[in-house]
Amino acid sequence: MSEEAVQAAEAAEEAPGTEDVHYQAVEKDGEVTAIWEMQGHKHIRTIHPQSAEGKQILALFETAA
Asked: For burial by CB atoms within 10 Å, which of 42, 46, 50, 58 has the most?
């Protein structure tokens, strides 16, 4: 790999907003109370688990397990 390619790859890793978005379930007493949308370590937004989007996300986690 050329030095230019290495520098471009490093710059892409350091660029803000390029990290993958992932979700974290927040539980209390065994119940999911919220779903956090995260980008790296940054909290983007909170999704209610009973909303249509929240149900879709939870269904994806259940099928992956």
From this structure: 58
Helical H segments across the chain, by residue range: 3-14, 52-64
pLDDT in tens, 21-51: 999 999 999 999 999 999 999 999 999 999 9
Secondary element (H or E) of residue 21? strand 21-28
- Count Cβ atoms below 10 Å from residue 34 Cβ, excluding itself: 14
Distance CA 39, CA 21 (A): 5
45, 37 contact by CB (below 8 A): yes
DSSP letter, residue 50? T
Domain ranges of the chain: 20-64
